[in-house]
């Protein structure tokens, strides 16, 4: 009975992501908005159908896949306010999942802040964190602005926004995502919505919302009613790209031509599966997208924090590292909380193997990952 109830709840969550029905919405003057829905530059089939949806639910709840979660706490590095204050411009920290803290021109920028225990509309069920954030919301210094890529629960977290917004100067979000922030208590004057290719000058920064190939929705009947974006952040010294969630698509080349070369591309790398290959990149797509963007250093994210697919939790990191080595791409793979610099290459030990050195990996052929 418990599993049945959990399956029903998960079905509701998945249908929130897979359903296509929706109510008529306010029309926007945009070439990628039609009949109340936003449209990808490279559209793909999003209606999985009942049978396929049930199959995905069955895989999540009743099928065992090896190594989808670490068998012990993963190594992280505690981050303090003093370290952030003393860090030079160009420093970046992974805080977990797709949350990255950047220090540029003396300002602090945060992407897709996610500090909750679960990536879910409910904190009693849903994907649970593998690790605590390396710094708490309470310890974070004031944040100059936050960039939100889309409205999915692992990127737009209500509890995090409620706790964080008083120390944030501005929130930059895709079209129609602002209403959620207002519901979470963020004052209207702190929220600015962007369409694809829309830019703003914010102090020393040029900020641009750029396309991604994904989808949106937080409920059963609001599929694609809000926009999804990637972000470009440029100051006098540094150019950074943040992919948000995206499948590999030709739009990376255009973004690179318009705004590149980038000192760092922060690219999605995890939660991929053949069933949703068009909206989440496989590791080879992550590296190819970085190359299309004319990136100098690749910082992969969207891994190492939540179980959101069926692949081994460490596979995205290892495969991207191997592909990047073959392609002679500089990849940055710090532990959560460990600093990297936008203008410096750096080698890291494969920390993702450390928690797996136990009986849990007896059946896994590490050689296949190389």
Automatic annotation (TrEMBL):
Coiled-coil boundaries: none
Domain Metallo-beta-lactamase span(s) in chain numbering: 109-302
Keyword hit for Signal: yes
InterPro entries per UniProt: Metallo-B-lactamas, RibonucZ/Hydroxyglut_hydro
Keywords: Signal
Keyword DNA repair: no
Signal peptide (from-to): 1-21
Cellular compartments per GO CC: cytoplasm
One of the Pfam families matching this protein, by short name: Lactamase_B_2
Name assigned to this protein: Metallo-beta-lactamase domain-containing protein
